[in-house]
């Protein structure tokens, strides 16, 4: 990012800019890493509101997790502010707050097409539970289930018949949660609705998801309910990159992941070290020196370009002085490490992309680029990540992506370095 203006004004902008960019870049990157390990086919939901660093951190996290590749959030305010799709389920407290089926006063539910009304949905649910328990393909699999859990599921389905997604691990997943869910889902099917699926929030997620999928397929076959075997299975419970990777290696039947604490708090790396440096004043380049070479700034106003190879992968980014001509496709370009003399390479790019665009021209005559909406930013983020070579984004020992400077900028950096550094004297 390049900021130009009166030095006092620009200096005041340092703290807000670095504050805004550090966390945004960090959590978006963390979200993108989770998307990479989960794969394109899985639905990812951000569940971090309760664990985020305050309400402002939670709102920011929802926005930037969506930008980094997540599909939805449980944060209703973030959904309202940014147009992010909302997803979520009821809580364990909701399930345990019910004592019996008698606590459901209104049991009526209109068919999805509105043609008729089921006067006692709860009785329909109980009939289906008996059918499941007596089914030949499921014989001796299910016994008595927790009736208070069944009451909670039935009540939730009456309120949300088109989006019934049940949390099934309050008491016992396979002995109670799954048969109770299936009974309610089959009753909804009789009335023209399709249940959304289940959520697993504890236990052996790989094993439970596989066993649950077997039950869903058995019910589809036993009662001839097309698509029941493909019911969505969502997993949560303190998930992170490592646990999702482990699930992938074990084999599982999870379709969607709800990720919270490790995502929004960026547990594996708490902060990002973005910096803000003066590089030119009154058209005179400036440099900040340090005994730590990594902290030496790169002087003067610059332009940045991404150079792509024959296979479409980006090879290297290059910074040039604003006065230099732009690099061109098919042109042989010397790319140099800004500080290490021996690290250099010629690159012949097949495509060149300029990276810096002016979004706030101030009083200048520069054309202003329109900042795209959040959905387009998300799409671009995903497209850019897909262009990277696999070795750059692998989890173990990734190849660092190279950022270089032009030969002229390299020479100028070292000229200014020698000019500004005091010469020592030995006696």
Provide tags for this entry.
TIM Barrel, elongated, 427 residues, nicotinate phosphoribosyltransferase, alpha/beta, 6-stranded parallel β-sheet, 16 strands, 6-stranded mixed β-sheet
* Separation of the first and last Cα atoms: 45 Å
Per CATH, the class of the domain at 92-237 reads Alpha Beta
**Poorly predicted sequence stretches spanning 5 or more consecutive residues:** none
Helix content: 25-40%
Rg over CA atoms, rounded to whole Å, is 29 Å
Describe the structure.
The chain has 427 residues and is α/β, with parallel strands linked by helices. Among the domains are: 146 residues, TIM Barrel, CATH 3.20.20; 139 residues, nicotinate phosphoribosyltransferase (Alpha-Beta Barrel), CATH 3.20.140.10. The protein is built from 13 helices and 16 strands. The protein has a six-stranded parallel β-sheet. A six-stranded mixed β-sheet has the order 14-13-16-12-11-15. It has a two-stranded antiparallel ribbon with strand order 3-4. The radius of gyration is 29 Å and the shape is elongated. Its cofactor is Mn(2+); Mg(2+). Its EC number is 6.3.4.21. This is Nicotinate phosphoribosyltransferase.
